[in-house]
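In this supplementary section we document a worked example of the pipeline. Step one takes a protein sequence of length 91 as its only input; no multiple sequence alignment statistics are reported here. Step two produces a three-dimensional model, which step three serialises into structure tokens for compact storage. The input and output of this example are shown verbatim.
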Amino acid sequence: MLEWLEAHAATYLDSIGRLAADGQVELLLAGFYEPVLASLTRPDRLDQIAWMREAIRRRFGVEATGLWLTERVWEPIWPPTWRMPVCGISW
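The serialised model returned by step three reads:
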């Protein structure tokens, strides 16, 4: 979605970036291609989250530390995944 918005609504993303830089909104991490993360292997989950973190950092200049679970799918695997330093997830 981020790629589509960049191509079709870049000024909208600019507005979101200003709000994030001013602390008025908080951007959330997710899998970059919006996968159901629980269906992926641990390395693939980490890659998806890292790709989104880098895309947010590059586009908006902020660090995202919260995670949105696509389709709100919770699995007991999440806490160990979040402890990985590469994820940078605090909530």
